[in-house]
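forwarding from the other thread:

> can someone predict this with flavin-adenine dinucleotide?

sure thing
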Amino acid sequence: MAADGDLGKTSVMNRRSSAAFDVVVIGGGIIGSAVAYQIARRSDMKVMVVDKADGPATGSTGASVAISRCRYTVPEVVRLAYCSQLAYRSWGDFTGLDDPISDYTQFGALWVFDRTQSELKAEYERLRTNGVSAEILGRAEVLKRWPELDLCVEPIDFGDLEQHRCRQGSSFLFENEAGIADPAGANVDLVAAARTQGVEVMFGTGVVDVLAKRDRVIGVRLDNGDEIHSDLVVNAAGPWCNRINEMAGAQKRWTLTPTRIQLILREWSASDSRLPITFDGSTDGCYRIERGGSQILLVSPEIPEFMEPTSDPDHFEVNPDRNCVETTLAAFQHRAPGVKHAGTTTGLCGLYTINEQDSHPIVGPSEVEGLWLANGFSGHGFKLAPGIGAMVARSITGNTAPFDPDTNDDLFALDRAPLATSGGVFA
Ligand SMILES: Cc1cc2nc3c(=O)[nH]c(=O)nc-3n(C[C@H](O)[C@H](O)[C@H](O)COP(=O)(O)OP(=O)(O)OC[C@H]3O[C@@H](n4cnc5c(N)ncnc54)[C@H](O)[C@@H]3O)c2cc1C
C-alpha cells in the first residue's frame, strides 16, 4: 500500500469534501458491477468501476454455469439466494433496462443426495419457510418425470470404480424455480445499468496499488500512472482479490484460493427430454442443459485431482484434462444412463475463488479503514450477486431498494466465525 509520502502527482484532500469519487470498485465482473449498480440506484454517490480486462465477463463470471438455486445450509443464505433469483427472474425490472440481454430459464433443480427422511424434511422446511418453492419427490415420481435418470445415492470412489455398488435413494429434494441466467449477458447488463445510473466504468485499466493516508485507504493507482481518489475502495477482483488485499495489507484471516474448475460440454440429441438441473450427491458434480438445448453442461466431480489451485489467475490451462473429461462423462452416464450422447465433446475451465474455511464469501469492511471486500465466492458468486450488491450498498449508503435481501449485512463479515455448510463447495 502506498503511504502518504508516495502519493505522487495528485494531492490528497479531505475526505468527503474533495475525493473525486465516493466509491471506487476494483473489478467489473458480476460482483463489482452489482455493487456499483446497487450503490448508484439508491444514492447520489459518485461511483467508479475500474477493470483491467477489455470488457465484462472475462474473469470467473464468463465461465460461470450461472445456476440459480436456493438450497443452502444457512437460512439467511437461502433468503439471499432467493432475493437474487427474483432479480434474475425479473431482470428488466431489476436493472431498469428496456431490453436486457440476460433472461431466466427455469429448469428446476433436483438434489440427488443421500439424506434420511428427517434430514430431507429439514432441508425442505428451510426452503419453504424462507419463501422458496420446493417439493419432496418420491423415487417413482422422479422417474416418471425424468425416466433417463438413475437415483443412486452411494458416493463414488473414482480411485476404485470397480467396487462401486449402486444404492438407490427413495426421496429427493426438488427446487421448482431454480434455473439459469446468461452469465456474460447479465454482467454486460449490470454494467449498462450502472452506467445508466451515472456510474463511470473504465475497462482496460488495472489497479496496481492501493493508496493510503494515515492508515486509511484513499484511492487507487492505475497501471497508466493515474491516481483515483475515493472515500471507499471495494475489492471485487474475483480470483485476483488476494493481490489487491496484499497491496492494502488487508484480509489475512481467510484462505481464498483461486481454483481451476473444469466444465465439459457434450452435444446431445435434441429429441431428449428436458432434464432438471441435477446436483449429483454421488460425485458432487452437477449437470444442466446448456441454454440452446443442444448441449448438456457437466461440472466435473468435486475431487482434488480436478480442482487445481493456482497462484496466478492470469495463466491457467483453459482446456479440460483428458482424464477429467472421461471421468465426468462416466459420472454423468452413471447419473443419466438413459441420455443418448450425440456429436462432439468440448469443454472449458474457469476459476472459483474458494474460501477454504467454509466456502462462503467475505463481504463488508476490511480491517483497513476505507477498504471493503467482496471476495471468495467459491461457486456461489453468480447466483448471489444481486443480493451481495444490495448488502454492500445498503451498508455504505444506509438506503434500501426493491429486491433487497432480508439478511444482516454483516452475514459474511471478515471477523465472523465459519458458517455452516453441508460440506464441499455446495455449502
Ligand atoms: C466453472 C465455473 C462455474 C460456476 N458456476 C456457478 C454457478 O452455477 N452459480 C453461481 O452462483 N456461481 C458459479 N460460479 C461462481 C461465479 O461465477 C463466481 O463466483 C463469480 O463470477 C465471481 O464474480 P466476481 O465478479 O467476483 O469475479 P470475476 O468475474 O473474476 O471479476 C473480477 C474482475 O476483476 C478484474 N480485476 C482483477 N484484478 C484487477 C486489478 N488489479 N485491477 C482492475 N481490475 C481487476 C478482472 O479483470 C475481472 O473482470 C462458477 C464459476 C466457475 C469458474
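The radius of gyration is 22 Å. thats all i got for now
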